[in-house]
Known about the structure:
The chain is mainly alpha-helical. Helix content is about 55%, strand content about 10%. A three-stranded mixed β-sheet has the order 1-2-3.
Amino acid sequence: MPLEPLQQVLTDLKHRQWQQEQVFVQLLDAWSQIVGTVVADQAQPIQITSGKVLLVATSSSTWAQNLAFERKHILNKLNALVSDPFTDIRFSTSQWPSPARLPRRPLASLSSITPASLQRSLGTPPPGSRSDDPTMAFDRWSQAVRSQSQAYPNCPVCHCPTPPAELQRWSVCSLCAVRANQKS
Length: 184
């Protein structure tokens, strides 16, 4: 299998992840209209898996079980709103935020907590802000990776910063190890 250029891989990955994030933001905006405000207070979408499965956190196992019975109905409503249909929905209490992790608010207003309000409270830019541009987000990520790798020793073959564990295991970086393996 030929290797693709790193720039192409990163561009494809960035594009796919950005599209998935946009679908998730649209889903969050429409969630209370899809399931109703009472259910939306007790169940929140948390992730879309690569297999187009929507993971939903619920406040209790009772809610998870009741929503599982309504899974097909909710799935039909969701798929009517999106261009790339979901294959399934899974409900679980495992990702429901504990009271210690939530911002200090009265219990009655917990339903007003949105991803944007959580991002504001954590100091990250809300969706739709100028710095939420995919290119800028990628630049921030690559800068963080560069700053983390500055302390790494260099690979003896390509002279790129390499985690010490890779050097211990293969005596070269993982890319040079793959190239050497393909030649043999």
